[in-house]
Specification:
Blueprint: H1 2-6, H2 14-23, E1 31-34, H3 41-48, E2 55-60, H4 63-72, E3 77-80, H5 86-90, E4 97-102, H6 125-135, H7 144-156, H8 164-173, E5 175-186, H9 196-205, E6 206-214, E7 227-234, E8 249-255, H10 277-291, E9 300-306, H11 307-318, H12 322-326, H13 342-351, E10 357-358, E11 365-369, H14 376-379, E12 380-386, E13 389-393, E14 402-405, E15 410-414, E16 425-426, E17 433-436, E18 441-442, H15 444-447, E19 458-459, H16 462-473, E20 521-524, E21 526-527, E22 534-536, E23 542-543, E24 547-552, H17 560-567, H18 570-579, E25 581-582, E26 588-589, H19 592-596, E27 600-601, H20 605-620, H21 628-642, H22 646-664
Parallel strand pairs: 1-2, 1-4, 2-3, 4-5, 6-8, 15-23, 16-22, 18-19
Antiparallel strand pairs: 5-7, 6-7, 8-9, 10-27, 11-24, 12-13, 12-17, 13-14, 15-17, 20-22, 20-24, 21-26, 25-26
């Protein structure tokens, strides 16, 4: 299992594979390839629904998986190698395919550092990018201009992206005109900034046909992310990815976990036909696609999703990225930089309103992420204020150590959700966590290095110095791979030799704190329920990277209290619930990237003043249960700005609550009763 996770291998299973193959009309394909074939589940699925291609090929980097695939599918050509290696691509019988089907590995490049368990070389991030660029000339499905644009996309995708992004680009380049791309992807492709480049590629070179969601995260027991099926048909390159007719839609389908039988994720859905459950389901899905029809009840729920809205949301993210300008799209469509989910778009349509929105940035509100120390076992401690000092107790590698720290050395910090109060505000008085702030202190033995800067650092209090020395001896790695604290990735940059009139800095000195570390408002990044926003009173507490953070800039008309009020409104909760990323266990992940694209309506100064007043009321509440009247007043102000009434606010609350309830079913992976055994 650990080996599979390191390689990003989550083998699809033929039940799910048959759904993907049927939606992609694999039975009509004359040529089929899976460039990351694993043990061959998806290729086998194509054959099981009636595919009989003249050419069927799988590429797999792991010899053990490739051997299973080869033995299982003697009619397939199973190639051992990296799909990102141009030499591997040169061994293919062809380079344009009727169907490219795959389940790209969900793994970051850093996981490729240990090669001991695999006999085929695992490429680095740079080698993957270089390999893709070297492969481009071989991709006969792309014309010269396609290849030029693909080269920009390959050069431009984020180094923070997981391996799924270059996998998408490769797979897309292998699809012939009129062919189909059919992939299993993490749900994060819908919301992550680094996946925006994939959206662009789809909108410009494909017609998206189906997006199929695993409603209750039941398809992969061992994956930590919710997954989605994507089917798209290759078309001739559009002049721009961004211009779509208002009527252009794709079919978005939610499949309940309750639809599953032992044989198939849709085995309990009863449909006329009988050739196979998956082909019958695909036939019904194509009817929904063709007619632009909604099917709101049952074990599989479908709705037409606006392509124009999807394009607009893509532009909101892409307009901040360098590759977008390089590819020549910047002037082709104005973007407010906001993301409006399909659920919120439908709500606005039902209300008959079209309010103007802008980003927080345009209102003078910045968004970021809290403090990442790189070694919480050293920099963080539990603490109690006593007699002008903080009595600290450490855990992890320093378990059992205690120290007395003055205020100049220990700063209050909110490390995790369990430390949040019952009300709506955090403060030093309520803090139980403390961070070592040694930026102005040095060990006595290190002061000699600063002889030229005798007044820069104070001598570290002896009880703290003892902790620092103990940390220097402790193992901050594992028993198998021990590691010194100063070698940790996020700690080593703290070290700086004396140079150009600057004193040396030591590993135990955190970087200077930024506004994102001491914000006005914080929200947990991973939430079981819709996240609550909390005020950081007077910006006195440090906030850990477990939280997304928000703060007002000097010229902003917003203040901290108004921001607190707005982020706890029904509008904010519905927007967050429908735009955050749902994780495999049902938690909602709310990143800074989501908040940067948040649709903020246009408040006037009087409305902001009222919000601020109610935000102050909210911050003074000791319990959430006491806040109903304040929240109702906040929602009334937001409703006035949006142009809706009280019923509209109730519906927003239902949208947020409905999202929570769906996510709550993920842990059971059963889905509940969704309308019987029929679509």
């Amino acid at each position: 299992m650990e080996r599979r996770k390191r390689l990003g291998q989550y083998f699809t299973g033929v039940g799910l594979g048959r759904i993907l193959a049927a939606l992609a009309q694999a039975e009509k394909a004359e040529s089929i390839i899976d460039p990351m074939a694993g043990s061959g589940d998806l290729l086998a699925s194509c054959l099981e629904i009636g595919a009989a291609p003249a050419s069927i090929v799988g590429i797999e980097i792991d010899r053990a998986a490739r051997d299973v695939c080869s033995n299982r599918l003697p009619q397939a050509d199973c190639i051992l190698g990296s799909a990102f290696d141009s030499d591997t691509i040169s061994r293919l019988p062809k380079t344009e395919w009727d169907l490219v089907i795959g389940n790209p590995p969900y793994v970051r490049y850093q996981s490729f550092s240990d090669k001991s368990e695999i006999d085929h070389f695992l490429p680095s991030a740079m080698q993957i990018r270089t390999g893709l660029l070297q492969t481009l000339p071989r991709l006969s499905a792309l014309d010269a201009e396609d290849k030029r644009l693909f080269a920009h996309l390959i050069s431009g995708y984020s180094g923070l992206s997981d391996l799924a992004v270059p996998s998408w680009i490769l797979c897309a380049g292998l699809v012939k005109l009129g062919g189909r791309l059919a992939l299993v992807v993490p749900e994060s492709w819908l919301t992550r900034d680094y996946a925006t480049i994939v959206h662009y590629l789809l909108f410009r070179w494909f017609d998206i046909e189906f997006v199929v969601e695993d409603e209750h995260a039941s398809w992969f027991d061992d994956a930590q992310v919710k997954t989605t099926l994507i089917v798209a048909k290759r078309v001739k390159r559009r002049a721009s990815a961004l211009v779509r007719a208002d009527s252009s839609t794709y079919c978005h389908i939610l499949i309940s976990a309750a639809a599953a039988s032992p044989e198939s994720p849709i085995g309990r859905i009863a449909l006329a036909g009988g050739s196979s459950p998956e082909r019958d389901f695909a036939k019904q899905a194509r009817s929904w696609l063709r007619n632009g029809a909604s099917h709101p009840t049952g074990l599989a729920r479908a709705r037409p999703a606006s392509m124009k809205l999807a394009c607009r949301n893509m532009v909101a993210a892409a307009s901040r990225q360098k590759w977008f300008a390089a590819i020549g799209e910047t002037g082709s469509q104005a973007s407010e930089g906001i993301y409006v989910s399909h659920e919120i778009h439908d709500w606005l349509t039902r209300q008959g309103i079209a309010p103007s929105f802008a980003t927080f940035e345009s209102h003078g509100v910045a968004v970021g992420q809290g403090l990442r120390t790189g070694a919480n076992g050293f920099f963080y401690a539990d603490g109690v204020r006593s007699s002008g000092h903080i009595a600290l107790s450490f855990s992890g590698p320093l378990a059992g150590l205690v120290a007395r720290a003055p205020d100049s050395v220990a700063r209050p910090v909110i490390r995790r959700q369990s430390e949040l109060p019952a009300g709506f505000a955090v403060s030093p008085e309520l803090a139980t966590g403390w961070a070592l702030d040694l930026r102005q202190h040095a060990l006595p033995e290190d002061l000699g290095e600063a002889d030229m800067f005798p007044s820069v650092y104070e001598r570290m209090p002896e009880s703290i110095a003892a902790v620092v020395r103990a940390a220097g001896q402790a193992n901050f790695g594992t028993d198998v791979k021990p590691q010194k604290v100063w070698n940790l990735t996020a700690v080593s940059p703290n070290i700086r030799p004396a140079a150009r009139g600057m004193p040396p800095r030591h590993w135990y000195m955190l970087p200077d704190f930024a506004a994102r570390h001491l914000p006005d408002v914080l929200l947990a990044r991973v939430n079981s329920s819709t996240p609550t926003a909390y005020l950081n009173k007077a910006r006195q507490c440090l906030i850990d990277a477990n939280f997304s953070t928000m703060w007002t800039l000097p010229l902003s008309k917003w203040n901290a209290a108004a921001l607190l009020a707005f982020m706890n409104s029904a509008w904010a909760q519905a927007v967050i619930e429908t735009s955050g990323a749902v994780m495999g266990g049902g938690a909602l992940k709310v990143e800074a990237a989501h908040l940067r694209r948040f649709p903020v309506p246009a408040f006037n100064e009087e409305q902001l003043c009222k919000l601020s007043r109610h935000g102050d009321e909210l911050a003074a509440k000791a319990e959430h249960a006491e806040a109903e009247a304040s929240l109702n007043s906040i929602n009334a102000i937001v409703a006035e700005v949006l142009g809706c009434d009280g019923e509209g606010i109730k519906e927003l609350r239902q949208i947020a609550r409905g999202g929570q309830e769906r996510r709550a079913k993920h842990n059971t992976k059963k889905g509940g009763q969704d309308g019987g055994e029929v679509c």
